[in-house]
Design brief:
By secondary structure, the chain is an alpha/beta fold. The protein has 4 helices and 3 strands, in the order E-H-H-E-H-H-E. It is globular. GO terms for molecular function: cyclic-guanylate-specific phosphodiesterase activity.
Length: 96
């Protein structure tokens, strides 16, 4: 089954490590994969670790905003294991 066939199963969630996000190259990579596969970004959700977004606030906001602008859904992975609060998360362009 190719990537477009996944859509009949719902969305796919992908865990992303902080090291993969740093430097913003992930935005370019995700855009390339979407273009190559023809996968509709509404079916893709990236799970970002709480630790990364709390330690790299400005970079995280910039990168997550660019990913969201591609149509990707964004979620926090392992929320509550670090030191963030629900009110602090309002700063981030998260979708779930």
């Amino acid at each position: 089954m190719d990537a477009r066939g996944w859509t009949s199963l719902g969305h796919i969630s992908i865990n992303v490590a902080g090291q993969q996000i740093q430097g913003g190259k992930i935005v370019e990579t995700v855009a390339e994969v979407l273009a190559e596969t023809g996968l509709d970004p509404q079916y893709v959700e990236l799970e970002i670790t709480e630790t990364f977004i709390m330690k790299n606030v400005e970079e995280a906001i910039s990168t997550l905003t660019a990913l969201r602008d591609l149509g990707i859904s964004l979620a926090i992975d392992d929320f509550g294991t670090g030191y963030s609060s629900l009110s602090y998360l309002k700063r981030y362009p998260l979708t779930s």
